Amino acid sequence: MRLRGAMLGAGNIALRGHAPQWAHDPRLREEVEIVAVADLSRSNLEAARAWFPQARLYERAEELLDAETLDFCDICTPPFTHRALVERAARSGLHVICEKPLAPTVDEAERIARAVGDAGIVFQPCHQYQYSPQWQAVRARLPRIGHVYLAEYEVRRTAADTGNAHWSPAWRTDRELAGGGILVDHGAHILYQLHAVLGEPRSTSPGPRAGARSGSVSWGIGASSSATIGGSRSTPTRRRRSPSPRA
Fold first, then answer.
1. Do residues 232 and 200 touch, judged by C-beta distance below 8 A?
2. How confident is residue 150, by pLDDT bands cut at 50, 70 and 90?
């Protein structure tokens, strides 16, 4: 008997990342069935129907969760929606897969953790970089290097990723919707990668990159950012760059 799941959100990450795996991965197809999809956009729902022809479609995730009998849900919505959806799923005993960043604030992340712990459900954030072939190759070679004292991880971008055209293409540049600039949006990946090889952080020191424009806010194509984290086994540094376009 296959697990019954629902996809909450049918924007870019859902349609380009999650849906193809649920629909086409041979093992997942044997073990999992996506029976329902929710999204505010009718166009997005119709695009999801191409992946899941038998799935029932809803305009609101809450309506879907009230109507469907499920084993789990896959949350593919922006960070500001995560806490309410996770809490709603946890109250129903549903296991949860959730896109990163987990939440726009520390308080909301802690509330998510409490809801998951109290319900005793399985909760899996989308930390897929841990399983990428490139990172697995790096991990396999680290023992040859010896003890790692310093790690520098640099990402270069010229703009924030564009959001779905049928909702808010610029949501990643909106503080209320995204919760943070590139350090939050992409930095979540680098943090768990470095944590895996360098241990628990002992200190953090975020700030603007040298030469960045005044102010360290990087909500759009804005100032470059960096963060230094003192680890329990070393001193890693992580850095994101969102270079401003030249005039």
1. yes
2. confident
The secondary element (H helix, E strand) that includes residue 240 is: strand 237-241
How many domains does the chain contain in total? 2
Establish how many alpha carbons lie within 13 A of residue 184's alpha carbon, considering only the half-sphere containing its beta carbon.
23
Res. 133: pLDDT tops 50: yes
Domain that holds residue 169: 138-241
Q: Does residue 132 lie in a domain region?
A: no
Looking at residues 142-162, what average pLDDT do you find? Answer: 80
Contacts of 153 (CB under 8 A, 6+ apart): 190, 193, 194, 236, 237, 238, 239
Average pLDDT over residues 19-46: 96
For residues 9 and 123, membership in a common domain is answered with yes
- Do 148 and 101 lie in one domain? The reply is no
39 in a structural domain: yes
Query: Pairing state of beta strands 237-241 and 225-231?
Result: antiparallel
Question: What is the average pLDDT score of the chain?
Answer: 83
CA-to-CA distance for 50 and 54, rounded, in angstroms? 9
pLDDT at residue 27, as a whole number: 94
